[in-house]
Fold this sequence. Notes:
This protein is of the alpha/beta class. 31% of the residues lie in helices and 15% in strands. It has helices spanning 37-46, 51-67, 83-90, 162-176, 187-190, 223-234, 257-264, 277-283, 292-300, 325-337, 362-374, 405-419, and strands spanning 30-31, 91-92, 97-103, 109-114, 120-127, 132-135, 139-140, 158-159, 210-213, 246-250, 267-271, 311-317, 342-348.
Amino acid sequence: MSTTPAMPIPGLIDPVPTPREVTPRADGKVDLVGLPRAAITRLFEAAGLDAKAAKLRAKQVFHWIYHRGVTSFDGMTDIAKTMRPWLADRFVIGRPEVVVAQHSSDGTRKWLLKTADDHEFEMVFIPDADRGTLCVSSQVGCTLNCRFCHTGTMRLVRNLTPGEIVGQVMLARDALGEWPRAGQADLAALGDDMVDEDGGYSADGRLLTNIVMMGMGEPLYNFDHVRDALKLVMDGDGLALSKRRITLSTSGVVPLMARCGEEIGVNLAVSLHAVSKEVRDEIVPINRKYGLDELLGACAAYPGASNARRITFEYVMLAGKNDSDEDARELVRLIKQYKLPAKVNLIPFNPWPGAPYECSSPERIRAFSEIVFQAGISAPVRTPRGRDIDAACGQLKTSAQKLSRAELDRLAEEKQAALG
Ligand code: SAH
Ligand code: SF4
């Protein structure tokens, strides 16, 4: 059940619909992926187990699902053989369906996925020398209309459920062959060098080491589901990824930023992209509701931010729009004014068909970066990855279009004419 109420927001769809509950399966079985231990326990009790048995079985099943990655009850070897068909008659362990899997020439991988009720969304894996980052979607489409973003041209179809969000991480582990092998299941058994300070896996020998909530959608407009999914990702007996290796990116949903820090505790990235009201209102329209002052104030108050754990400001480089030396100096001034423990990530604009902008020149990007860097703030330029398969930042899009006002009017007229 969702606990966060819908909020009125700018954009073509207003307010955000409350997250839908999972559509019941046609076969009446319940998908356990996305559920915490307590919910699994309750389901087992409701299906007839006594309280003690339900708790024990839920603990075992939770471990097999999230820690070992099994997708069938048959593989749960510490559960009695007679019990396994009982579970299989009532429950399933699902995954999002893979529609297409693509490989970029630079090693980036993109998956077009489908929900059980036929909505398509995307997930991207970006391998690097020292890490592998999975870019996870939170919604099918987006209510917001950032002008440089291809996802922004989609309407919001619906929020993804916790199972569909954590399911992306599980599917990536399937595809990369990265579930702990038998005998390696216990974190303790891995030895200190494989376990980092929060009890999660360290990078050694792993392909998938980091998660960014930077796929399709605005994660803070699906707060409850994103939180519940990330809790499973961080659970030491679940996927066991440290919160330090997870980053949530928001376009600036100010009222939920503090809760993100308190209830999820992951790193924060903020899509800043402009330093004046005029330009940010235009390119990141949520700014008309939550302005720069409120946004930077919320960043200064973000729970857990410190010099050791800085907030990332994402800044897309748009030629002639937000990329002048003056913009760079104003960015530095704002970071200092609000005393923000910050780093800046400069993102060369990734083009898509019909986009109203062009990317700044490499010299302009370098000059901008240099000004920020000279002020003592780290300002690396993000290397575009997976552009050849439309997997780079801002290129993700599936089929659900946002209709323009004129198109909506035309459709309404046609409907009237057909009725009359
Ligand atoms: N909705 C969230 C997270 C998804 S977008 C957000 O807006 O923060 C991940 C990052 O890619 C954001 O900083 C977004 O502004 C940026 N982005 C969007 N379109 C882009 C494009 N065409 N080129 C480069 N970056 C883009
Ligand atoms: Fe939505 Fe983020 Fe794209 Fe803006 S940049 S339209 S918030 S996905």
